[in-house]
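A quick aside before the break. I want you to see a complete sequence-to-structure record at least once, exactly as it would be stored in a machine-readable document. Don't worry about memorizing anything.
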Amino acid sequence: MTVFDRSSEVSGRGGRAAPKLARPALVAIGLALIVTIVWGGYGHHWPWTGINGRTARLWEWLNLLLLPVAVGVLPIWVSRRGGLGRRHLAVVLGALSILVLLVVLGYTVPWAWTGFVGNTLWDWLNLLALPFAVALLPVYHQIYHAWRPRHTTWALIAFGVFLIPVLGGYFGDWRWTGFHGNTLWDWLHLLLLPLLLPAVIVPTVVATQHAGRTPSDAEPRGPRRSSGHPVRRSD
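That is the input. The structure line, written in tokens, reads:
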């Protein structure tokens, strides 16, 4: 190996190591900028940030972050073919428990910083429908294969329970539902994409992937075996 070969090998290793070192630095810089902006908005009322106790409460942060978080966890979920581990499930359940506790206290205490008071069931559906549909993308195909008649029964029961506040909102003037005054157009805005994902988009993608596979791709590749017939020599 010549001196030039060694220098090129060293430079190649350094080039591969540079992105690995740059990522933590970029993440640290980004977090520092976010913390500075949030600190300046809440603590020093920097008007250009638009972040303060009236415009950026917990409700507004949930509207901002839920969908990006749902998209961000997709690679983690997809990479684990066996499903989420116990640690990840514990984190998800812990986060949901904290959110439920904050919702209950935000409405009952009430805590103004949560921004929950005044938001109806309709507002919560608009907040959660699309992120929930996106987060479940990796398991829709499994749900299709595992679906049984009892699941249809439970789905119909859940739909019937959901109809109670819908009918109460439109005909009983249940103001906490927020349904009164919403038209079919509003329901399409709410449910079109969350329903298209499991009903149309995911089956189409799965069917396309299966159609693109050849029989040779499905067969396991191994060492070639001989035919077992001896080779005849010609004298």
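Two observations worth writing down. The longest helix spans residues 3-43. DSSP finds nine helices and no strands in the chain. We'll return to this after the break.
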